[in-house]
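**User:**
My hope is that you can spare some time for a protein that puzzles me. This is the protein in question:
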Amino acid sequence: MKNTPIFLFIVFLFTGMVNTNAQYKQGEYQKHPLQKIFPEQRFDSVAARHSLGQGTATVKGVAFTKPKNNLGFKAPLANRIFANHITVELFPYTPYFEEWYELKKKKENVKRNKIVYMDSIAYQYRLYCETNSRGEFTFPKMKPGKYIIMGTLPWTSSGSYDQYTGSGYGSYGGRVDYYERQHYTVSHSDFLIRIIEVEPGEEVVKVKLK
């Protein structure tokens, strides 16, 4: 075949053009590389299982948040934003989870990518339920003791501003600036967490997860 060298050259050229995978891939720049923080003490599955045993009390709660003001604090007089069908998780307040909770409060810094984790086996020792559209949730058959409850509440805020679009001259020669109303929506996610306690003899424990 007289055109074999040309044919092979074309095949080689086409193959080289298709293969775009780099031999080495540069990792994405991270201003703050992820730092994973775990509790130091060993997880006691026996204690956790015992704490989550069945009792006679009922925990009834409502999960909600409020929009933040310009200083980053939740506005006390603002309307509540109820947790619409989110998952609320309940963990026993054993020494392992107590240490995790304290690390969460004191060591975690999301902006600097310092995140507190719990052991994957420990995470299995929990109860969970789903809220209704009003943020209400229930944990039945609870034993006396302390528990950690938590959930993530997504919500959105919206607003508008006047965007400058250009200028011109009016009927009397004066400069006129033109603006167009622009609308925007911002997504938020609030992590809700608190400690609750079921006292001996209590039948119903009402809590606010906010």
